[in-house]
């Protein structure tokens, strides 16, 4: 995922240039990548993480422009939490030799809200996969009919 800047200086982050959703959808605007670097350079990944964390903090009713120290602290806490969860899941999976989604679900089974949200997101992901498969099959049928 890359972060782009519109020519007027507003930062926009989406999956790709083609999927960008502009605040003003009818205006065509030039995209300029920060520092004119490759999209996956370490500086851009760090920049992206900070922007995402700022947006998450704002989504949870924090200040729209939090202090850089606060963003760095939240990032450190998040990275530590995810790293700890992955290590615990690897310990559980070591007997089997393969890390599965169920290992993570087992770790959060005592935290009911997290478990409910994770199962909801996993089921939605599965529905989206099935819809994509059905859509691809329909396109193939239409192509052979023509």
Report on this model:
The protein has 146 residues and is mainly alpha-helical. It has a domain at 1-63. It has four helices and three strands; from the N terminus they run βββαααα. It has helices spanning 42-59, 68-93, 101-107, 112-145; strands at residues 2-6, 11-14, 31-32. It has a three-stranded antiparallel beta sheet, with helices on one face. A hairpin with a 4-residue loop joins strand 1 and strand 2 (11-14). Helix 1 (42-59) packs across helix 2. The longest helix has 34 residues, at 112-145. The radius of gyration is 20 Å and the shape is extended. The two termini are 36 Å apart. The model is unreliable at 12-33 (pLDDT under 50).
What's the layout of helices and strands?
Blueprint lengths: L1 E5 L4 E4 L16 E2 L9 H18 L8 H26 L7 H7 L4 H34 L1
Antiparallel strand pairs: 1-2, 1-3
Structural descriptors:
146 residues; three-stranded antiparallel sheet; 3 strands; 8% strand; mainly alpha
Number of strands: 3
Taking all Cα atoms into account, the compactness measure Rg is 20 Å
Indicate the proportion of strand residues: 5-15%
Largest sheet: 3 strands, antiparallel
Mean pLDDT: 77
Q: Uncertain spans, ≥5 residues at pLDDT below 50?
A: 12-33
Calculate the terminal CA-CA distance, rounded to whole Å.
Answer: 36 Å
Which percent bin holds the helix content?
55-70%
Tally of separate helices = 4
Order of helices and strands: EEEHHHH
By secondary-structure content and strand pairing, the structural class works out as mainly alpha
Strand order of the largest sheet: 2-1-3
So what's the overall shape? extended
